[in-house]
Amino acid sequence: MQNFWRLAPTAVSVLLTLLYPLAIWLGHGRVEPRLLALLLVLAAATRLPTLKLKRASRWWLAAALLLAAAAIWNNALLPLKLYPVLVNLGMLGLFGYSLHAPPSIIERMARLSDPALPDYAIAYTRRVTQVWCGFFVINGALALVTALWASAALWSLYNGVVAYVLMGCLFAGEYLVRMLVKRRHARLALQALVQQGGQHV
Fold first, then answer.
1. For the residues 174-185, what does the mean pLDDT come to?
2. CA of 136: how far to CAs of 16, 71, 139, in Å?
3. Mean pLDDT taken over the chain
4. Residue 162 pLDDT more than 90?
5. Using H for helix, E for strand and C for coil, what is the string for the chain?
6. CA distance 16 to 13
7. Helices 55-74 and 83-100 meet at what angle, rounded to 10?
8. N-term to C-term CA, the chain
9. Is the pLDDT of residue 7 over 60?
10. Which of 112, 143, 190, 192 is 20 to 30 A from 135, comparing alpha carbons?
11. pLDDT of residue 54
12. How far apart are alpha carbons 14 and 75 in whole angstroms?
């Protein structure tokens, strides 16, 4: 039960992020932007439990509240449409900083299932982290383009559907590459073992 209450804010934050583009599109023309801004305030509130632990959460909270304040003050939709850009910037900062101060994010995730990662796996996780940084740059740029120049429907379609499909494709592609890398290194290790055995004969 204690784990549930600890993970609940994160789960709510993820759910809000997933449903946010759809909510903005459905509310466009029906609900005033200053009321839709409450979604951002709610998303920011879910980060409150992590403020003492993560400095990045403080920056994210400040930026989210700034967008919400701009939407409320001007009763404008644009600040709300910039939220996916903020999410991508936040993820880019998190992944990018982990490259500057190892271990990388992907390495940390990999060590949860295999604490004793071989050297090739550490190099591979660093490369994957770099790939994700590239994804966040491109996805964030497209989110910005759709926010500034696309209709609310197209913005919602990209940020609420297409972006997640692309993310899923990247996950799937990385999994296939990972299996190939593991198989290749397992074969090389076996060949080295066989050669060592032949030398001792």
1. 90
2. 19, 24, 5
3. 85
4. yes
5. CHHHHHHHHHHHHHHHHHHHHHHHHHHCCCCCHHHHHHHHHHHHHCCHHHCCCCHHHHHHHHHHHHHHHHHHHHCCCHHHHCHHHHHHHHHHHHHHHHHHCCCCHHHHHHHCCCCCCCHHHHHHHHHHHHHHHHHHHHHHHHHHHHHHHCCHHHHHHHHHHHHHHHHHHHHHHHHHHHHHHHHHHHHHHHHHHHHHHHHHC
6. 5
7. 160
8. 60
9. no
10. 112
11. 66
12. 25
The Cα 18–Cα 161 span in angstroms is 9
The model carries a pTM of: 0.87
pLDDT tens digits, 37-52: 998 888 777 776 655 5
Q: The tokens of 148 are what?
A: 């500034």
Query: Which residues, including other chains, have CB under 8 Å from residue 94's CB and lie 6 or more apart?
Result: 56, 105
